Amino acid sequence: METIKILWQDVEYCRLPNDINGNPRYYIGLTTIMQYIPDLPKTDDYIRYINKRKSYLSVYRGRQYGYGYVLQSYSVEHDLTKEIQNILSK
Q1: What is the DSSP letter of 68?
Q2: pLDDT range class, residue 19, cuts 50, 70, 90
Q3: Which of 5, 20, 50, 70 is the most exposed place for a label (fewest CB within 10 A)?
């Protein structure tokens, strides 16, 4: 896992194999995105909250890392910052 600083928190992400078209993909765990969201009572509430507001993220369906999201991007720091701001603003 690699770490970058986005807004005020450290964000861990992991590079996944490229998609079929050669575009780079990154895995971002649910707990990484949860740190930006106000407190909710259950984990399911966080998942619903994020899934309603996400634009560029898709749900990670693999088993290796656990529940999380995949971001397809050439500039992970820029696009992830944009996505987190999008989740917070809605």
Answers
A1: E
A2: very high
A3: 20
Q: CA 71 from chain center: how many Å?
A: 7
Structural domain total, the chain: 1
Query: Are the beta carbons of 80 and 73 closer than 8 angstroms?
Result: yes
DSSP class of 46:
H
CB of 33 closer than 8 Å to CB of 81:
no
Query: Is the whole-model pTM more than 0.85?
Result: no
Residues in Cβ contact with 9 at an 8 Å cutoff, skipping those fewer than 6 apart: 35, 36
Residue 8 pLDDT > 80, yes or no? Answer: no
Give the range of the structural domain holding residue 30, as residue numbers without chain letter. Answer: 2-89
